[in-house]
Amino acid sequence: MEIIVLPDADAVANAAAGIIQARVERGPAVLGLATGSTPLGTYRELIRRHREEGLSFADAQAFTLDEYLGLPADHPESYRSVIRREFTDSVDFADGAVRSIDGQAEDPEQEALRYDAEIAAAGGVDVQLLGIGTDGHIGFNEPMSSLASRTRIKTLTEQTRRDNARFFPSIDEVPHHVITQGLGTIREARHLLLLGLGEPKALAIAAAVEGPIAANCPASALQLHPHTTVLVDAAAASRLEHTEYYQYTHAQKPAWQRY
Ligand code: GLP
């Protein structure tokens, strides 16, 4: 894991946008896109680079990470809508290049299998952007998710429903069930980019990065991945034990070594 501690959320957004831009400019890229508030700054910065510096996504494809079960695709809080509103509609992805899970599929189990097959048919994900839940979840893989899991239906914890209630008129409207890419699916992406912002994420980041690999912190599965970059602001890094070493490593990073 490469752990980069940055002063604030803007610095994290800038660094994440830089990594995504570098991959998009190397040739046709498949991006994995996360929702939640954490990646919003990154999306804003990518939109700015598109508008002001000509960064183009015309040759790129994208897959969202997860979806609420039962929300119509055009519901404002479906992750299909959110990702389009916050990012992809504001840049130049080709028609049909942004794929999402159908939260209203007649057969959700079949939809999950179909989605994994669609990702595989696109050649897999090149860069997967990830936030982290306060309970250590990535995507919607709640604690005790199998570290080898595939895209499937999950039940949200009450903690996650409470955390996400701010996006809905009331907690009663937060769905109980979701379809999420599994931890095994996510780990097949070639480069994982985990972002953590703010003090409420500090314990989850510490468990994910420095704790044991354990199903009770799903993000710790990233330790098994050969190419993971963790970008955190100072508050999210506040429970890490080895911050000095991470800062030293970053300062010594050879100019030839890319992210
Ligand atoms: C949701 C999403 C996750 C996201 C998490 C954290 O549960 N499924 O992908 O990482 O929220 O959200 P936030 O970034 O708003 O804290």
Architecture overview:
- The protein is α/β, with parallel strands linked by helices and 259 residues long.
- The chain has one domain: 3-Layer(aba) Sandwich (Rossmann fold), CATH 3.40.50.
- Helices cover 32% and strands 16% of the residues.
- The protein has helices spanning 9-25, 40-53, 79-86, 108-121, 158-164, 183-186, 202-210, 243-251, and strands at 2-6, 30-33, 61-64, 66-68, 98-99, 127-130, 152-155, 177-180, 191-196, 228-233.
- Helix 1 (9-25) packs across helix 2 (40-53).
- The longest helix is centred in the first third of the chain and has 17 residues, at 9-25.
- The relative contact order is 0.18.
- Bound molecules: 2-amino-2-deoxy-6-O-phosphono-alpha-D-glucopyranose.
- Residues 34-38, 65-66, 131-133, 139-140, 160, 164 line the site of 2-amino-2-deoxy-6-O-phosphono-alpha-D-glucopyranose.
N-to-C SSE string, H for helix and E for strand: EHEHEEHEHEEHEHEHEH
Stretches where pLDDT is under 50 for at least 5 consecutive residues are none
- What's the total number of strands? 10
Stated plainly, the CATH topology is called Rossmann fold
The general outline is globular
Tell me the strand percentage band: 15-25%
Number of helices: 8
| CATH architecture label | 3-Layer(aba) Sandwich
- How are strands sequenced across the largest beta sheet? 1-10-9-6-2-3-5
